[in-house]
């Protein structure tokens, strides 16, 4: 698995990259994305054409279109189009006690997309109520214009507006910092977190960098969520633990972090080899270190 890093930094990340969790094109999700794209465009055309009957109606239709287009982007991601570019949350970092290293922050795109979707939903249902109150043409289908339908619309408007600040509170703060001597998993304290703080593991205490998969079953099939476990021969400190950590390992929900999962796993395994190897890898820029192969190669897999 190990090997010399090429002189060209542009190929260094690809040289150490190994595929543990395949990222393949999912045609079913892609077809659903095309379907949602159609209805998203229809909603915006309806909003811009003035057929909604009022300014509030046009705004509501645009909000509904935004909600549909966010669902489209989520579908595109589920189809396999993820980690196209390296996130700005992967940066260099410095600590007085450990020196310079590299930090991988939490992924923010998923929460941001859901937040925009909730805002679009809130705008739509709020405009449904305003249009009904002002006596304009309803934004709801003709079979859904009873009073109880507007009560339901009010409920959804209140719920989605309330979810927007709640989502910001639930945003992941988990990060990972890699230094030549230690690995630091960082977590900021939040309103709903039972624990917070750093867990510091020396590379010498790590027995293995293990890969795991969490299966999430739903109507569209089964989603595989990649996990990395840093196995240790000494007890993991209680301070900073999450409920999924144990005495024997610290778990990283790598699918929720701002880097392609296979790239992070490959870098961790390479760094685990020796201090010289770690210093060699840390001399590279984060963009070079965590760059996976081009998306087209990951979607279609190896030839032959």
Strand order of the largest sheet: 1-2-3-4-5
Task: Write the H/E string, N to C.
Answer: HHHEEHHEEEEEEHHHH
Report the portion of residues in β strands: 15-25%
Query: Structural class, from secondary structure content?
Result: alpha+beta
Rg calc? 23 Å
According to DSSP, the number of beta strands is 8
Query: Any idea what the shape is?
Result: elongated
Q: Which spans of ≥5 residues are poorly predicted at pLDDT below 50?
A: 1-8
Largest beta-sheet characterization: 5 strands, antiparallel
Number of domains: 2
Mean pLDDT score: 83
Tally of helical runs: 9
Task: Please give the share of residues in helix.
Answer: 40-55%
Question: How far is the first residue's CA from the last residue's CA?
Answer: 21 Å
């Amino acid at each position: 698995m190990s090997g010399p890093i090429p002189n060209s930094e542009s190929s260094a990340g690809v040289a150490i990259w190994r595929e543990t969790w395949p990222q393949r094109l999912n045609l079913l999700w892609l077809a659903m994305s095309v379907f949602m794209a159609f209805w998203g465009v229809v909603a915006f055309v309806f909003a811009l054409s003035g057929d909604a009957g009022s300014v509030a109606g046009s705004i509501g239709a645009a909000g509904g279109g935004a909600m549909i287009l966010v669902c489209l982007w989520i579908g595109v991601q589920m189809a396999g189009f993820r980690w196209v570019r390296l996130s700005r949350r992967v940066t260099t970092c410095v600590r007085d006690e450990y020196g310079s290293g590299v930090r991988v922050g939490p992924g923010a795109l998923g929460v941001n997309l859901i937040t925009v979707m909730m805002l679009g939903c809130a705008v739509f249902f709020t405009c449904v109520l305003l249009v009904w109150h002002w006596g304009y043409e309803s934004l709801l289908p003709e079979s859904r214009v009873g009073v109880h339908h507007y009560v339901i619309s009010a409920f959804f408007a209140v719920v989605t507006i309330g979810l927007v600040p709640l989502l910001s509170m639930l945003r992941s703060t988990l990060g990972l910092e890699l230094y030549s001597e230690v690995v630091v998993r960082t977590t900021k304290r939040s309103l709903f977190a039972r624990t917070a703080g750093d867990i510091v593991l020396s590379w010498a205490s790590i027995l293995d960098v293990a890969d795991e998969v969490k299966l999430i079953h739903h109507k569209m099939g089964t989603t595989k969520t990649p996990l990395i476990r840093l196995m240790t021969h000494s007890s993991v400190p209680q301070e900073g633990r999450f409920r999924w950590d144990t005495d024997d390992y610290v778990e990283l929900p790598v699918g929720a972090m701002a880097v392609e999962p296979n790239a992070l796993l490959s870098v961790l395994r390479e760094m685990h080899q020796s201090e010289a190897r770690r210093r060699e890898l840390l001399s590279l820029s984060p963009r070079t270190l965590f760059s996976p192969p081009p998306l087209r190669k990951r979607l279609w897999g190896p030839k032959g």
